[in-house]
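B., you asked whether I could sanity-check this one before it goes into the benchmark set. Here's the sequence:
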Amino acid sequence: MMEKNDSLAKIREIISQHQNIVLCGHTNPDGDAIGACLALAASLHKGGKMVQVLLEPYGKKYNMIPNSTLIVEKEVVTEVELFIALDCGDIGRFQGIENIFRSAKHTVNIDHHISNSYFGEYNYVEEAASSTSEIVFKLLKGYFPLDGEIASALYAGLIYDTGGFRHTSTTPFTMQVAGELMNYDIPFTKIYNALFDSRNFSEMKIMGRAFDKAERYFDGRVICSSITMGDIEDCKGTNKELDAIINYLKGVNDTKIACFLYEKNDMDVKASFRGNDGYDVCALAQKFGGGGHVKAAGCTIAAPIAKAKEMVFAEIEKML
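And here's what the prediction gave me:
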């Protein structure tokens, strides 16, 4: 497939030509996928378009992102003029709505993952962007409606994917966007606290379990922890409460690669990876059909958790 980017002007033109629009984010959506989807949807809705958003159920901490009323069940979606995928590296990241994507008259793919497969009829992929929300801001600014709620959603996506402006994907432009969004009088402290400083009791218990089970390998260069469905049940939690764990593992001194694995169901294990400078974990995730960024990536492995860990370690050994 040819990696061809269309201009933002072209994407705006395509959006303007269509009335009935469906948006989707990736499976197991995070702050950026949710923020980008709900911001773009709210803007287009405000501009008089018929908009439906497809997002899987997500953790409570994202409930402060406005306009979740635009999310619908996939069964409700019938005819689609324009389908816009946000923050999805490839069609495999849709999970369960591929048929809706394929039935759409036209498709747009907006993303910032280096592993993006340019699967849309129209594509705008900017690897240097901190987040898909940053790209959506550029798309909207000066052309489509922007208000406090839309700005709040974009800010949530922006700070989520930069880890509160800590990740190396943060650029001067990212900070400029954050400043412009703050001009809309958004509750930026509340958004930050919801994403990074608040958790359910069960989430805290699961984190404790994950830290307790963490071990170091390859002379301390690799840290890994895993959580079973039994662990999640013991802590009375859900697998929507696990996304903070990998960043704590990554923060252990002298760690080059951090891995976190959890059982999604009897058949599948979700693996998240973080890499230090010089360690391309996107390449690692791609070995298992996943993807992401050079320093942060993930995949799903169809194997029991012990076997999945063995498979991952075999690939890490080659890397090291």
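One thing to flag: The chain has a mean pLDDT of 96. Otherwise nothing jumped out at me.
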